[in-house]
Design brief:
The chain has 313 residues and is of the alpha/beta class. It contains 9 helices and 9 strands. It binds zinc ion (ZN). Zinc ion (ZN) is lined by residues 162-164, 247, 249, 290-291.
Length: 313
Amino acid sequence: MPTGFAYSDYFLLHNDQPRIPHFESSDRLIACLDRLSRNNLFPTFYKPDIKPISIEMLSLVHTEYHIQKVQDSAGRRGYFDGDTPFTEDSWLSAFYAAGSGIALVDALVEGKIQNGFSLLRPPGHHAERDRIMGFCMFNNIAVTARYLQINGFKKIFIVDWDVHHGNGTQEIFYSDPDVFYASIHQYPFYPMTGSFDETGFGLGKGTTLNVPMPADSHNSAYIKAFEKKIIPAIEQFRPEVILISAGFDAHKRDPLGGMKVTTLGFEKISDMVLAAAYHICEGRVLSFLEGGYDKDTLAECVDVHLTVLDSFS
Ligand SMILES: [Zn+2]
């Protein structure tokens, strides 16, 4: 079965011309598309039809107030928070970005794909149940996890290797024993959450794993953390599906992150997670773009990540 590749031109509308100056721009996706097309990666992928997500699905994760706030931004320009601008059609990008997770789950359930990746924006892992923040409007991966559960996949494992801690995803599943959230990130760093002693609450105690890393960490430290902590957590939890918050801003060339990971490092950790999925959950992996702000570096990382997904499908 092929790898799914979810992409929509609607993802480009957020902060469209004239742009509010920002790292998180549509140039990121365009650079990825250019590279993937140059390297002829597209013919083997299954491309699901993406629809805007329904309010009903968003309500599985976000409050009515949160959803309304995004809808109310239609046709206007401004800032949701200090880091998160919106323009006239940003809300459309947000609805389609979250919808891409629904489309990938449908394709997975229908047996059309083995695994998949969504080249989306705006990203999602900082968005909390009731808070837009850090370039993120809807928590795309959280909505996908809930939709997987509706489709009969009870236990979900989320791996988040974006350089920033995914405070939103952690908050949403903090007391949920069926969704494991594991994050490796620079610490202390924005958004200042994600210390090692944040491990979940109530029934969810033990299903949050934070692996905070000092600035300037290299591939070797990342690979070791996956070997010693994240992969064993996957093996112990035995999920039915693995989701990846695939941010590439821990790359040494990233202008926002402070890490020293290389493209080869991202290839290696992609391979480790896919290999674990192959043994534990029949290779079911859905991956979602988060950060990565040097566009050519991002394109290179997305290329190797997709090549790894493809090699397991
Ligand atoms: Zn990030």
